[in-house]
Each structure stands twice: as C-alpha cells, then as structure tokens.
Write a structure and sequence with these properties.
Length: 187
C-alpha cells in the first residue's frame, strides 16, 4: 500500500508547526528506512510506502506528544483543514455531514492506492462508514481518520455529532465509525 506525497506533506507541515526544532527532533528518531524516504522533503507528485506515514505519525506522537495517539488525532484534523479548500468549506456550509462522508471517500482515493471508505448508513442523524482493505491497520492512521472526520463535521457547522469507533488495531473485526447526532436536551 502507498500513500500520496501530499498526505505526508500535510504531516510534515503539522510537525513543523509544533515547534521550531520539532521536525529535526522527529527526524532524528525515525527508522533509517523512513528517513531515507523523507530525503530533503516529500514530493506531492510521488507515492511513498504506507510505512512512512505510520512511522512518521508514531514517532511524532512519541517525541512531541504522549505516545497515546492524541497527536495523530490532531494530525487528522490539520490534514482535513488543508484538504478541504475554501470552496469545499462553502459547499459544506450548505450541505451536510452526508456530503462530507462522500467527500472523505473521494479524498481517500487521491491519498491512498489501496483500501477504501465504504458508507454503510447515511441519514440526517446517523452516519456509519468503514475503512476496508488496509493491509496493516494502525492506530496511527485510524486516530487521524477520526480527527479528519471530526474536523470536517465542525467545518460544515455540524458540531453536535458524537462518534464511536471500532478498530482492527484494537482487536475489533472492522475499522468502523458511527457518527450520531446528540439528542436535543429538553427545554
Ligand atoms: Zn482502525
């Protein structure tokens, strides 16, 4: 499985935004094979091994965060902001969460050369989608997907959704996200 240079570039920008020396500190801790792939920077026109995404995320989470994947979640939110252009954001304003789940499925195909997002449910108050076909599931990636969807929902003005996640990297049979609208509190 391969990941686009653009996706890795978003990770790099996120890491650099954390602190002036953040990128160098993460680079110093990367596996040698990953460091070799990074070279002098990611080319957006190129594909890279999926392992680069995982090592980069895991290392940054350990070096700059707590090693609990919270930073990976942040990376997903950041990546969403880069992916969704101003035009998309305007569309989302007039659309709904269903639109952005579709958008995420499309974005997947430009970011990865394997796997897919399958939308199982798409109603006004319930969205269920699954990521299928990733050979080696990792919390590094799935935590970022959660962050991506969470931020996309916020940008679309739909900030009253809660989500549950199942993950193969946690022993579940599927990597599946369920977004449900929080019930209105009685007046
Ligand atoms: Zn997962």
């Amino acid at each position: 499985m391969q990941v686009s240079g653009g996706t890795l570039r978003a990770r790099e920008l996120f890491i650099r935004s954390r602190a002036e020396d953040a990128w160098d500190r993460v680079m110093a801790e990367l596996a040698p094979a990953t460091r070799e792939q990074v070279g002098s920077g990611f080319l957006e026109t190129r594909w890279y091994p999926y392992e680069v995404l995982i090592d980069l995320g895991a290392t940054a989470d350990r070096v700059l965060g707590q090693g609990d994947f919270a930073l990976c979640h942040q990376m997903g939110r950041f990546s969403c902001e880069l992916t969704l252009t101003t035009v998309h954001r305007l569309l989302l304003k007039f659309g709904n969460v269903g639109h952005l789940v579709e958008r995420a499925a499309t974005a997947w195909r430009t970011q990865f050369d394997a796997g897919e997002i399958i939308v199982h449910e798409k109603h006004r108050d319930l969205y269920v989608f699954e990521v299928r076909g990733v050979p080696e599931p990792s919390r590094v990636h799935c935590a970022a997907i959660t962050g991506w969807m969470e931020r996309a929902a916020e940008l679309s003005g739909e900030d009253d959704f809660q989500h549950e996640e199942k993950c193969r990297a946690l022993g579940d049979r599927f990597c599946m996200w369920t977004f449900t609208r929080r019930p209105l509190r009685p007046l």
